Amino acid sequence: MFLYKTPQKDNYNMLLLGAVQISGHSFFVYKDSDGSISIKSSREEKLQKATVKKMIKLNPSVLKILDRYKIKPCIDTKTLIELSDGHMNDTCRVAIGIYSMLSSNLRALISENTLKEASMLHDLGKVLIPSKVLNKPTKLNKKERAIMNMHSMIGYELLKTQDISKETLELVKYHHQNLKHSGYPTIKSSEHIHDLGVQIISTADKYSALREARVYRRRLSKIESLLILYKEVLEGKIHKDIYKALFEYAKKYDKAA
Fold first, then answer.
1. Dihedral angle sign, alpha carbons of residues 220, 224, 229, 231
2. Domain boundaries in the chain?
């Protein structure tokens, strides 16, 4: 795909095609009504809000999910900007780092571009999660945890309305699944998920989150984070090859304490 910037237009009649990293910054890729492709900074709040509103309008399932938990559809673009510049951007770097450390046989099973796109979009659904749940400084109660866990399905339903590949949609939907398939959302019997892709995104997401300071805990060190994830290897939730690739990536490229 060739990307080029187009002049800013007043209308937002665009389809979201995906997301990319350029020089360490995140950008969304759009297709305009005339077919032209453009890249837009993740910090363009008006465009983001208009795009999410359009996604909601095109898919009633989003409102049904929100209504189930009595959530008022409030678009938190500030959170999306923070996620795009921070966690989703970092998850992308870690995911591609893991991918680069895998054997050539495993790398042949998944597209690098799909991993980049999915990791840059995986937490999009949090734009509709109430901030009092998203930023709660203490442990979430059962209802709040159920609401938080819906962000992956919300992101999937939002992105279904756009020009996003089925492979990317699957990774967004199941980025909180694991090798034992005991994560969320539940995998339907008719579905066969791409375990390698899900493992890479899920592991990168967890490592990135552990290495960040959150409102409810301090930033964990590289060693602490790797030890926590190694426990999931022993529990059968993370494949040893994925963990080994993460370990090699962290040893070589994660220089922070």
1. negative
2. 43-253
